[in-house]
Amino acid sequence: MDLDVVNMFVIAGSTLAIPILAFVASFLLWPSALIRIYYWYWRRTLGMQVRYVHHEDYQFCYSFRGRPGHKPSILMLHGFSAHKDMWLSVVKFLPKNLHLVCVDMPGHEGTTRSSLDDLSIDGQVKRIHQFVECLKLNKKPFHLVGTSMGGQVAGVYAAYYPSDVSSLCLVCPAGLQYSTDNQFVQRLKELQGSAAVEKIPLIPSTPEEMSEMLQLCSYVRFKVPQQILQGLVDVRIPHNNFYRKLFLEIVSEKSRYSLHQNMDKIKVPTQIIWGKQDQVLDVSGADMLAKSIANCQVELLENCGHSVVMERPRKTAKLIIDFLASVHNTDNNKKLD
C-alpha cells in the first residue's frame, strides 16, 4: 500500500477516534439515547417538523410535512404503545407535495397523559376529533390512515364524523369480532383469566420479551443486537404501567369490538391493507370489512406480519398513493359529468 495512503488512514483514524469511541460507548451504555437520536435524525432528513397544539389544557404532539393543498391532507394514527415516528419509514416513500400529519395518540409520547382521560376507543376518537378541530384539518375532508389500535380508532372516527373524512385506509385494524380466536388472542384470554397483566406479550419489560414481541409482530425475522433490544426496553419501561391500563381498556367490553359494531356506518372509499401472516390480528378481518363497507378495496401482503408499516413501508406507501390517486381521479370525473 502507498505510504501516503497509510498516512491518510492514520491521520483519519486518530481524528475520528474520539467520536467513534463516543459512539461505541453510547451504543453500549445508553442505547435508548441513540434510538431517540435516530428518530430525530430521520424526522430532520425527511422534513417532518414537530409541533404542539392545545385543546383547553390538553396537549397534542404531532409532526407534519407540507401544507394543505388541492389534494387531501393525510392524518396518520399509530398503534398501541407506538408513537408518531413509527410512520417515518412510510413517509420516506410518500411524495413531498402531500400534506402529512402524524399525531401521538392519547397518552403516548408528547401527547397529554392523564389519569382522568377516557382511554376507550370512543374516548380516543373524541380526542382525535379535538386535535382535528384544533388544526382545522377538517376544513376540507382529509384522508385518514390508521394501523392496529390506530386503525380501530380511524374506522370508528370515519363512522362518527363522516363529513371530516374523504377516504380511509385501515392497516390490520383491531376491533373486529372473529368466529374463532387465534393463538395470540387465546393466550390473552388466559392471562386475563389469571389476572397476569404483567405478562401481556405486547408490553415487554426485558430484552428477551422484546425479542419475542418482535417475532410475534413481524413475519420477517430481524436480527436485533442485544444492546438495541435493551434500548427499546429502556424507552418503554417508564410507560409500561400506562400501556397496561390502556390495553385493559381497549380489550374491555366497551371497546373490544367497536370497529365491528360501526363498520357498516363507514361510507367513504376505504382501503384495507393486511399482512397475510399476521399473528396478532387474523387476516380474515379484511374480508369482514370488505363485506360491510360498500366501497372497499383489499390489499393482502405476502410474507408480511402485523407490523406492515415496518416490514413493507415502500409497498404500503405505494398502495396509499395509488388508492388516493384512484379516489381523487374518480371524484374529478364525477365533477366533470
From TrEMBL:
GO cellular component labels: AMPA glutamate receptor complex; GABA-ergic synapse; glutamatergic synapse; late endosome membrane; lysosomal membrane; membrane; mitochondrial membrane; postsynaptic membrane
Positions of transmembrane segments: 20-41
Top-rank lineage group of the source organism: Eukaryota
Pfam entry (one): Abhydrolase_1
Record-level GO BP terms: acylglycerol catabolic process; long-term synaptic depression; lysobisphosphatidic acid metabolic process; monoacylglycerol catabolic process; negative regulation of cell migration; negative regulation of cold-induced thermogenesis; phospholipid catabolic process; positive regulation of lipid biosynthetic process
Location in or out of the cell: Late endosome membrane; Lysosome membrane; Mitochondrion membrane
The keyword Lipid metabolism is annotated on this UniProt entry: yes
Coiled coil: none
EC annotation from Swiss-Prot or TrEMBL: 3.1.1.23
GO function terms (MF aspect): monoacylglycerol lipase activity; phospholipase activity
Top-rank EC class of the record's enzyme: hydrolase
InterPro entries, A to Z: AB_hydrolase_1 (IPR000073), AB_hydrolase_fold (IPR029058), AB_hydrolase_sf (IPR050266), Epox_hydrolase-like (IPR000639)
Residue ranges constituting the AB hydrolase-1 domain according to the UniProt record: 72-313
Catalysed reactions, semicolon-separated: 1-dodecanoylglycerol + H2O = dodecanoate + glycerol + H(+); Hydrolyzes glycerol monoesters of long-chain fatty acids
Keyword terms, alphabetized: Endosome, Hydrolase, Lipid metabolism, Lysosome, Membrane, Mitochondrion, Signal-anchor, Transmembrane, Transmembrane helix
Topology class, membrane: Single-pass type II membrane protein
Function: Lipase that preferentially hydrolysis medium-chain saturated monoacylglycerols including 2-arachidonoylglycerol. Through 2-arachidonoylglycerol degradation may regulate endocannabinoid signaling pathways. Also has a lysophosphatidyl lipase activity with a preference for lysophosphatidylglycerol among other lysophospholipids. Also able to degrade bis(monoacylglycero)phosphate (BMP) and constitutes the major enzyme for BMP catabolism.
Family per similarity comment: Belongs to the AB hydrolase superfamily.
Listed name of the protein: Monoacylglycerol lipase ABHD6
Organism per entry: Pan troglodytes (Chimpanzee)
